[in-house]
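Example 3.2
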Amino acid sequence: MPSDAPVPAITVTLQRGKTARPAQTGVNGDFRFDAVAVGDYELSVDLAGFRPARLPVGVRGGVLKPVVLRLVLADVRTEMTVRAESDEVTVEATDNL
């Protein structure tokens, strides 16, 4: 069940075009990007067990306002293949002892 708990030590990426800047979250799930140029960006997190998170953000006046990026649990899918060879079946009672 989701808890809204902060997730420490994950990579958050701020991307504009082909330029990407990673930042590591702290113990409280906080992260920071310094000296960000004015423009439109995408903030993203890819973490195993969660759906990819994407958030468009706009930087105006060189300041990126605080944002909260919520992670949603990924769908769980398990696939199993069971194979077995069967013994020979006979209708003779003496063979089935």
